[in-house]
Amino acid sequence: MTLHEDEVAVDAAVVRELVGAARPEWGELELVPAGAGTDNTMYRLGDELLVRVPRTPEKALALRKEQEWLPRLGPRLRCRVPEPVHAGAPGPAFPLPWSVYRWIEGDEAGPGTVQDWAAFGADLASVVRELHAVELMGASRAGDLSWYRGGGLHPCDAWISRCLADCRASVGAELDVDALERLWRDGLALPEPAGTPVWLHGDLKPTNVLVRDGRLHAVIDFGGLSVGFPDAEHATVWDLPATARDAYWDAVRIDEATWVRARAWALAVAVSGISYYGGTFPAFVAECRARLQAVLDDAAAR
């Protein structure tokens, strides 16, 4: 499944060649597909390792960022995060950097894996508070740590307005895009965020949160790791049931303005996802549509 114009093709044979050339001691380990997202394709390697291969040159930069910062962030967080064990170099079989991590056992957060959504929301809030409290260790909002989701809404207005127009044409019969646009404008009407920039995961949606024994166990995929304002960090709570969202709100104790900006980010990321992946990634588009409906339902209930 190709998602991007500059995507570099990869399959199990290519990954096998990469691993065998770089780490011969792993060459005979079983290699099994372990999923694919918008940024990377994953393969489980043996029982203890995971190979992540970027889809595009831009996504490869995110892996390098993880290799640099996760070994420093991991010891400062109580939940488990990916542990890089090998930084793969470009080669004849694949022209981009790639990465190997310790395998983390767990299931994606969802109705079949989470036992108590209120507890899950509180646990996620705890992870967020803890990450945001970690010292920056010399990092700043610059270079690959300056991602748009850590800034203000206004620089994204023209882009998101185009995406809203796309959604009006593609899913307007199923979603109230006019109401979504009003919620986006509500966020824009507020002052830009202020305060001290913090560490941000950037994409704490359920597919990036692993559960064991019904409780939050690990946070994965730090490709969106950045330094910035936390408004967009809260956006993924609209991917969760209202019970989890309410528990998160109570635990994080953010102000109303931040919540309104977070809601604007939630719908912005979703409408851009529908606009970009509308003809290539139906499962992801379904996630985006579900988030937008949750945003609308939540706003109507407030």
UniProtKB/TrEMBL annotation:
The keyword Glycosyltransferase does not apply. GO terms for molecular function: kinase activity. Coiled coil: none annotated. InterPro entries: AGP_Transferase (IPR051678), Aminoglycoside_PTrfase (IPR002575), Kinase-like_dom_sf (IPR011009). Residues 31-265 form the Aminoglycoside phosphotransferase domain. Keywords: Kinase, Transferase. It comes from the Bacteria. Pfam families: APH. This is Predicted kinase, aminoglycoside phosphotransferase (APT) family. It comes from Actinacidiphila rubida.
